[in-house]
Amino acid sequence: MKRNTWQREAVREALDDTEGFISAQALHSSLHATGSPIGLATVYRALGDLASSGEADSLQSPDGEALYRACSTTGHHHHLICRNCGLTVEIAADEVEAWAKGIAAEHGFTQAAHVVDVFGLCANCTALADAR
Amino acid sequence: MKRNTWQREAVREALDDTEGFISAQALHSSLHATGSPIGLATVYRALGDLASSGEADSLQSPDGEALYRACSTTGHHHHLICRNCGLTVEIAADEVEAWAKGIAAEHGFTQAAHVVDVFGLCANCTALADAR
DNA sequence: ACGCTTATTGATAATGATTGTCAAAACCAT
DNA sequence: ATGGTTTTGACAATCATTATCAATAAGCGT
């Protein structure tokens, strides 16, 4: 097991290898599962750094957890996220872009940014849930 | 079934008296400041009830707190929020509803919920910002 | 390579928001 | 008032996140 001094790199890689959004806790567990001795505090530190340097996106799940994801595209886009397994589909949302901009302007707002994320259960998790 | 809950009324009124979004904790403090002996647990319960019955909206602040707001319309709707002064405009978003549902279905997702909020600077704050 | 200085790490404690517990108080129909 | 049900609120428990801090590793000039 290689002991990489810069554990931040390990976190970045783990994020890259992750399909969708993942919580800091889950990422930590995941790293441990692959044999990394990384500490929870370091995972949080690394995620915070990555997020503030724009190398990762972060969002708040509906139940208050912070979720992170390495987003390949630097451009603006939105997400369709499985609230069970974290699977994430990136979606272009021109329609919504236009709508948001229009609504903002209509009410005299400028510098409009928007949070548009859709949470649901992916096909797989829906099946699992039904089986329960 | 109408429950006889005077606390819920107190919470509802306190919410009504509040301009923008407020945290459960802050609302509790605010109630205490006006002499109400209401307990923190009850505030959370009342807010939860109001939120699930559609009488209040909730969203997650960037730092993970849950914020609440009394909404005038009971139906599903979204918000246009001034990131400077907190002014909030409620917006109907049928277009977005349909889009979200469509996108979800298209990718096999079920039980779709969505977070759609637009942040910007209201006309007033834009003027102030320009003046600087 | 060696010693010295500084930055990074990670176990654990601390924090802060939220939720659970449960006995006491309030309410209601008799 | 009385018994049974519901609501309340002090406090404990929980969960994610952040701060602490001693141990360790990386840098660096020699």
Side-by-side strand order of the widest sheet of chain A:
1-3-2
Q: What is the β-strand count of chain A?
A: 6
**Biggest β-sheet of chain A, characterized?**
3 strands, antiparallel
Residue runs with pLDDT of under 50 for 5 or more positions of chain A: none
SS class of chain A: alpha+beta
Distance, first to last CA of chain A: 39 Å
Q: Biggest interface in this structure? A: A-B, 35 and 35 residues
Family (chains A, B): Belongs to the Fur family.
Cofactor (chains A, B): Mn(2+); Fe(2+); Zn(2+)
Protein name (chains A, B): Fur family ferric uptake transcriptional regulator
Binding site for Fe cation (chains A, B): 76, 97, 114
Write up this protein.
The structure is a homodimer. Chain A contains five helices and six strands. Chain A has about 130 residues and is of the alpha+beta class. Chain A has a three-stranded antiparallel beta sheet. A three-stranded mixed beta sheet of chain A has the order 5-4-6. In chain A, helix 1 crosses helix 3 and helix 2 packs across helix 3. The first copy, chain A, is globular, with a radius of gyration of 17 Å. The model of chain A has no long low-confidence stretch (mean pLDDT about 80). The interface between A and B is medium-sized, with 35 and 35 residues. Chain A binds a DNA duplex (30 and 30 nucleotides) through helix 3.
